[in-house]
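User: I'm curious whether this sequence folds into something compact or stays loose and floppy. Could you predict its structure so I can see for myself?
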Amino acid sequence: MKLWGGRFTKETNQLVHNFNASISFDQKFYHQDIEGSIAHVKMLAKQGILTEEDRDLIVNGLEGIRTDLENGSLTITAEHEDIHSFVEAVLTERIGEAGKRLHTGRSRNDQVALDMKLYTRDEIDELDELVLSLLKELLKLMEEHIDTYMPGFTHLQKAQPITLAHHLGAYFEMFYRDRQRLQDIRKRMNYCPLGSGALAGTTYPLDREYTAELLGFDGPTLNSMDSVADRDYLIELLSALSTISMHLSRFCEEIIIWNTNEYRFVEIDDAYSTGSSIMPQKKNPDIAELIRGKTGRVYGALVSLLTTMKGIPLAYNKDMQEDKELTFDAIDTTKGCLALFTDMISTMTFRKDVMEASAKNGFTNATDAADYLVNHGVAFRDAHGIVGQLVLFCIDKGIALDDMSLEEYKAISPVFEEDIYEAISLKTCVEKRMTIGAPGQEAMKKVIEIYKGELKNL
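Assistant: Here's the prediction. I'll summarize afterward.
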């Protein structure tokens, strides 16, 4: 059954039908379509547009269709153009004439806009929970590794000593902002388009505020043309998913590097690794690599929808049907990546000894050696040059700054005394960085408490 067949005298070419149809993918929101229709029918009855008898027949019929779809006794079939025509056809088949009144006072344009909003809102809630789970796991790891020393990097070069908790905290900040973005999008999109009709509303005395209330919206949309033509909320969501994916990819890149034989900072659990078909010694970080790779797929959805929307005049155009497959895929991809990544890091082993040795052997305490000289009256520029000589000496000898004898220190600068060793120990280097946001233990404890409070409140 087509919802628009009366104007036409010929059947649609099968290829055209297949090209035009959306049921292969929009069946994904059958639940939202039925939920929206139930609210619409209740509003129509409240306004006296439908009888209470018709309302009850339609609502019971729709609930029966939903139950049958969920338990598998009813199957969505491809001869219908979209999920809307499928539901209406089955309803009319089951309850008769009353089913034909379901579509009173609405268009497929505002119906599909509603379905997509309801679906997107539900998916944002699920994404929010997945990001929250990741944040909780990061916070747990931060508490466990508040005194796990490691090198901090700039330009992939060892720079200054930090802790693993501090490093993980940077990602906590990223994913915390991601969660805020998701909630912000949900709030901004939470207005109901149903009742906008095709583009110019309807002559029926609809109560759009009541429909919005039934469906959990903050109110009705205020311009019927924008209501059916708006896909900003999907572009915003795809942008947020792209940012989440980018953060996951950055973290995965580091895990991949840390997992190499050269670094050995982490041991990825066997469940999240694979081997080689030819090299028996290999243990590959495939899940981290796949998450990194799928980021491009999510980016592609964003760019594709932006490109689709850029030349569309008001109001609805069929091009906008392209929003669904892109969005569905990006949501499913990001949800899968978030779930797998959280499980992967929760089972990962961090090699504390290797991380600490790497920080010592990478001259990450060189800045602190320079600060030691400055605190003993040496101008910073001179101190910088002296420490540069120390580093060259150590490179030549194949040792760390901690391994130099006091005599060797004094040969380069007589200012050095026995307390240089305490000044450049990893513990001192980290712990004396006590300003909020720094890796010192007291500062990190304060930040962790702040994060705990934020997770409770957001």
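Summary: The chain has three domains: 5-104, 109-199+223-352, 357-447. Residues 35 and 215 are 8 Å apart (CA to CA).
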